[in-house]
Amino acid sequence: MLKRIEVLLLVSAVLAINLHLLLWPGAELISIIAFAGLALLYPFLSMALFLNENQNIRISSMLPGLAFSIVLVGLMFKIQMWPGYQTNLAIGSIALIILIIYSFTLKDPNLQLGFKVLRKRAIPMAIIAIIALMLPPYTWLETKYSDYPEYIEAIKQLDKNPDDLQIQQRIDSLQNHQLK
């Protein structure tokens, strides 16, 4: 059951990213629900996802889920173009890399089985987080709004001067006329 929920949320996240790029109305809401759902799923249910039935349940079993959650929040922030994505992605990717390295050094066969499942999720997630970190800050904006260069420049100017009301009004005007 939990794995089906995970797959459903992952498919929703991929769909939301594609709809986001197509400027589909409601894509932001779908991406927030999908990424937030995954971020909430992993820390609290990572024991069930990452551990076998014969392993002892420990609070440390939640740590892999917390690393996944931090990365997912960072990805959601990057897609939504909210500040703070870099910190989340950096902390989450470092935590995932530590978990991956630790999982390869285990000698206990009971723990190896649980961490084998972890690696299947952690390695792709770490790769995605590192790629997202390496992308320049405006790549997503420039990809999403490639047909609206005036809007892209206005957003960049607003980032430099966040208190400039004239730029804010220009962005509002562009959103009302060009993006609809």
Number of helices: 8
Total number of beta strands:
0
Instruction: For the record, give the distance between the C-alpha atoms at the N and C termini, rounded to a whole number.
Output: 40 Å
Helices and strands, in N-to-C order? Answer: HHHHHHHH
Report the portion of residues in β strands.
under 5%
Overall geometric form: elongated
**Low-confidence runs:** none
Helix content: over 70%
Structural class call reads mainly alpha
In words, what does this structure look like?
- Helix 1 runs antiparallel to helix 2, helix 2 (27-50) packs antiparallel against helix 3 and helix 3 (63-80) runs antiparallel to helix 4 (85-105).
- This protein folds into two domains: 2-136; 145-180, no CATH class.
- The protein is mainly α and 180 residues long.
- Helices cover 78% and strands 0% of the residues.
- The mean pLDDT is 86.
- The relative contact order is 0.09.
